[in-house]
Amino acid sequence: MTHHDTTTCVFCPDLCLYSCPTVRGSGNSSSSPFAKVSVLHWLNRFPDSSGTKAEDVAYLCTNCGLCTEVCLHDQPVGQWLFEKRQELFSERKVPAQALRMCPDEDSLRQTLVESAELINSSKTPSIVFFPGCDMLKQGPEKVAQVVEVLDRVGIHDVGLDVDGPVCCGAPWRDVGDEAGFLSRIATWHRRFERFEGVVVAEPRCSRALKDASVESSRKRRYPQTFQLWKVLTRSLRSPSRKKIPHVVSLHKSCHIARHLEPHIMPECLSEGFVIERTQENVFSGRQEQCCGHAGGFSEWAEENALRAGEVLMEEASSTGADQILSLAPACAHHLRRARANRTDLPDIIDIVEFTQKALDAGTGKQE
Ligand code: SF4
Ligand code: SF4
Questions:
Q1: Ligand 2 within 6 A of CB of 289
Q2: Which residue's alpha carbon is at the smallest distance from atom 8 of ligand 1?
Q3: Closest-lying ligand to the alpha carbon of 297?
Q4: How far is CA 336 from CA 83, 228, 325, 342, 363, in A?
Q5: HSE (CB half, 13 Å, CA atoms) of 10?
Q6: Measured in angstroms, how far is the CA atom of residue 70 from the centroid of ligand 1?
């Protein structure tokens, strides 16, 4: 673990302030990246101070990376806060509320089994679909919906591995348990090596797998992985496709926008094959805003996280978008919850539902 050197933050005029979903969701600038770095800095100098404790700031972060993106000095505030979580974990000082970030794997396994029953496939597939904990929490119908859509886009020999991992381990990293995270990643690779490929539902899992493979020094035969959003958007590349009549604001998610594929815009959207118009976000490209769900923040401060999602939708609405398309099903689920009492805000659709609608429109079915 590298020790965070907070002295490299020059405490500039707070360029990072408006980037942070924890501020956007609370209106409280005392949780700005600047303020959190300041707390870490003084705790490094005076560990026994009776002021704000490390645990009060370490979990106020989605690790979205936007503060680093906007900072003229590239300060890795999210990384520092996550390193602080690791320290808290090793010192057994993780607050009980943070432990809720780790899902109940037995109950997720039950959902995975129910999903397999819905799909009704008994033979072992060559390609496995990995829903991950975020999608399993949405229920077996959601998982079955993805497998059905994958079949419709031509990936027929795809199924579930009911004895395989239910979570990539990312929530353990969110808590600060790096060993718990890396051991689950290792299990994930060992189990899925037997398949020809793995379709990964959530960008959050793809990011965790990427981070862990960079950190791992051991050579192993990794299973070939495919990101679900890429598989689906590629299937919609035909210019002859009927258009869905929406002005869409694209939410790539902070995982894709800054950590996985910063420069990619799905061709089916950039070329206008599927929708009337893609509306530029207020903050777009690498500076796309976080919806508030990542990094365990939904479990740590649910109300704040939902409000951050609401602010993101308000901004999308101000650009004239009537629909927000999320490439991450988990972000879409979070935004939908945030929209529960705000039906004036744009409709939310995830990439699976979007593909389904585009395929239906293409075959002349009603939208
Ligand atoms: S993290 Fe960067 S943008 Fe934020 S206060 Fe420090 S130097 Fe300024
Ligand atoms: S990484 Fe994101 S959530 Fe964390 S301090 Fe920076 S802007 Fe805020």
A1: no
A2: 12
A3: 2
A4: 31, 20, 11, 10, 28
A5: 7
A6: 8
Whether the predicted interface score ipTM is above 0.85: yes
CA distance 138 to 119: 16
Architecture of domain 238-362: 3-Layer(aba) Sandwich (3.40)
The secondary structure of residue 257, as a DSSP letter, is I
Instruction: Say yes or no: CB of residue 75 within 6 Å of ligand 1.
Output: yes
Residue of the CA atom closest to atom 8 of ligand 2:
20
Handedness of CA 137, 140, 143, 149 (dihedral sign): negative
The helix (H) or strand (E) run that includes residue 130 is strand 127-130
Q: What is the pLDDT of residues 192-206, one digit of tens each?
A: 999 999 999 999 999
Map residue 313 onto helix, strand or coil. helix
116-126: average pLDDT: 85
Q: What's the rounded Cα separation, in Å, for the pair 199 and 257?
A: 19
Q: pLDDT value at position 345?
A: 96
Instruction: Tell me the C-alpha distance between 339 and 3, whole Å.
Output: 39
Query: Average pLDDT for residues 79-97, to the nearest whole number?
Result: 95
Q: What angle do CA 82, 83, 87 make, to 5 degrees?
A: 115
Report the Cα–Cα distance between both ends of the chain, in Å, rounded: 51
How far is ligand 1, taken at its centre, from the CA of residue 79, in Å? 14
| Helix, strand, or coil (residue 159) | strand
What is the crossing angle of helices 33-45 and 77-90, to 10°? 50
Sheet containing 158-159, strands listed edge to edge, beginning at the edge strand earlier in sequence: 158-159, 127-130, 197-200, 225-227
Ligand 2 in contact with 166 (CB < 6 A)? no
